[in-house]
Write a structure and sequence with these properties.
CATH architecture of the largest domain: 3-Layer(aba) Sandwich
Structural class: alpha+beta
Number of domains: 2
CATH topology of the largest domain: Glutaredoxin
Number of strands: 4
Order of helices and strands: HEHEHEEH
Number of helices: 4
Oligomer: single chain
Shape: elongated
Strand order of the largest sheet: 2-1-3-4
Distance between the termini: 82 Å
CATH class of the largest domain: Alpha Beta
């Protein structure tokens, strides 16, 4: 009986350690990915902490990503910047700034535009608050 129990126990311990080790590696990998996304967002050419217009976004929002890629990136080449306001990292922004969804931009005077905007429309909005 001991000849069967001891090897089986040994195999269970090994399998348990492998499962635990894989879970730990995956957690570390996810943590590093989140840090990389935060660093990548912070260095985006269209973001500036001192910009007057706040851009509320989430990296999980397809319209926000489209706005960044198709509109903000080209506008950044023309010198336009927005202040990054990541609602995923700060869910309290919804209540604090009374926003209902993303993407949303809020100017210093409280003027708010919500939803994806084409380049010309967003450029005109940003021009008002240079």
């Amino acid at each position: 009986m001991n000849k069967i129990i001891l090897p089986s126990l040994f195999v269970l311990i090994i399998v348990g350690l492998l499962i635990w080790g894989g879970t730990t590696v995956q957690k570390n990998k996810n943590s590093n990915t989140n840090s990389a996304n935060t660093n990548q967002e912070a260095s985006a050419p269209y973001f500036d902490e001192n910009a007057k217009v706040m851009f509320f976004y989430s990296d999980l929002c397809s319209w926000c990503n489209k706005e960044k890629e198709e509109v903000l990136t080209p506008l950044a080449k023309e010198g336009y910047r927005v202040k990054p306001m990541d609602v995923k990292a700060h869910p309290d922004y919804f209540k604090q700034y009374n926003i209902e969804g993303t993407p949303t931009l809020i100017a210093p005077d409280g003027t708010k535009i919500t939803g994806y905007k084409e380049k010309d429309e967003l450029k005109a909005f940003l021009d008002k608050y240079k």
